[in-house]
Amino acid sequence: MINSSTVAFTTLAFTSLLAIVNPLSAVPLYVTATTDLNKRQRASTLRIAVATGIIALVAFGLAGTYILRFFGITTYAFRIAGGLIFLGIGSDMLKARKSRDRTSRVEQEAAEQKSDVGIIPLGIPTLAGPGSITTVITLTAQADNRVQLIGLYGAIIGVMVLSWMVLAVAPFIVKRVGRTGMNVMTRLMGLLIMVIGVQFIIEGVRTVALDILRQA
User: Fold this and answer.
1) What domain range is 172 assigned to?
2) When comparing pLDDT for 174 and 148, which is higher?
3) How many domains does the structure of the chain reveal?
4) pTM, full prediction
């Protein structure tokens, strides 16, 4: 049954993923990688990229808890680590600088030469990168029931569909908004990502502190 906590969790999942994926930041790479493709080929490449992102994030969502158990990682340790990653990515975005946790220079250069870039680097790691994967695994560990997990998967699909909509009009965005406008949006997203990262760290540290107090 859907209650207020489920709605709040799904909203958190959607906003967190939207901020970390930040489809606007993928616009320059997408435009560059598909410059020599015709309209039909661009559409096909975009569908492959979005499908790759959905499959990757849902797979990590399904396997997230098992990954943590296999390596003996506590959920609060993963929250703290995820928060630190968010701070790094957000810091780069505040400076309007492409994060090193998304696509490397080599991958961007390769994108200009490969005919099929839907899977790499557009799908992975541009749409489904370390930050978004960390977010999904962290949220999977935080989900209290199956309904919240379904909400998480719905949030993944929703963010990827929104990313598809943004990238579908990427040439128009580049022409109308320009580099300055995109930098402003990137900085705003960076601030939001850093706030989410701080919240993840606070929750992780608080859980550790409570465990220590209980054992004392």
Assistant:
1) 4-215
2) 148
3) 1
4) 0.74
